[in-house]
Amino acid sequence: MNEIFSNLVDMTAFGSISWGTLLMWIIAFILLYLGIKKQYEPLLLVPIGFGVLLANLPLAGLGIVDNSLVQSPDGSYMNLLDIASEYGIMNFLYYALIKTGLLPPIIFMGVGALTDFGPMLRNLKLSLFGGAAQLGIFTVLIIAVLVGFNMKEAASLAIIGGADGPTAIYTTIKLAPHLLGPIAIAAYSYMALVPVIIPLVANLLMTKKEFRIHMKKMDKQFPPKHEIKHLKTVKIVFPIVLGVVVAVFVPSAAPLVGMLLFGNLVKEIGANTSRLADAASGPIMNTATIFLGLTVGATMTAEVFLSPRTLGIIVGGFLAFAISVAGGILAVKLFNLFSKKKINPLVGATGLSAVPMASRVANEMALKYDKSNHILQYCMASNVSGVIGSAVAAGVLISFLG
Fold first, then answer.
1. Looking at residue 12, what is its pLDDT?
2. pLDDT more than 90, % of the chain
3. Residue 28 · residue 50 · CB < 8 Å
């Protein structure tokens, strides 16, 4: 009887379940709970959470294997068919879609097709605060190096401060692929926590008087000197010109920014390319998101995730995020010292890449202090520029370190 029971146990995976496995299941269930019940970034946290669960099913062989197992000493990789045969479907998808850097630019194309650069073009001065909000990236880069991360790992960690999941993943693929799982989880978790982090930082740095700065009243008191007369034409020309400029000055940012701007271009052209825009922002983006989430989650095996370095990434990611929000707010406060036309510092707080969530959160905060103070369109100027700013910052880091 004991022999029969032993054989039955050997046929199952019970003997392979460890405390690490159980802990990773708990993490997977937490991510799924946040995505399903709390509705925090469900399109991303649900696939990532389920990918974590798949990767930690004992004996299932669904976790992403170490890079050394598929790479020869000369740097060449096994072909994809051999990877699929030897290590299964998740490794096939990872090395075909993630390791090649394919999916993040594809998702950026969809983001571009959903993005309206109009608010930024109408308020170019406000778009500068999208650059100030990248402060968290370069501050945490220095801190991470000082606490023991190497430069490539530190850069991958710091890019979380841009609040852009695809950019964080793309940068990590290029610089520190062994940290992909923890960095992706931290990036998307903090993006989901934008409604918590922005109010936390803003309440620490802003006064009630600053919360009440009324942007529309300021526009009436100090009307803009120049207005764009042919905005439709400008919105079509803008992605073409900016794409060329970015490709010349920061070539490493071209895959992300170029696809972002192409997606935006087919949207702005109108009816003639509406099918392309619908495909980019619909089926293509949704399919890419599914595979991105599952494969990123599958990198989070217990051996990789349960380490002191992961804790450092989680803490450092929060710090980068918070400093980026603070950088945008402080930049506006500094501007207001020298300008008669005041800007609500909440506009600077939205210089992140989390579009449009950051702008909505800032707008709701302003309305709490003054029900007529709608600042959404002003926040979007900074918010949209943050998408470009974080991608360019990633390109700079990859150029110097890649």
1. 60
2. 63
3. yes
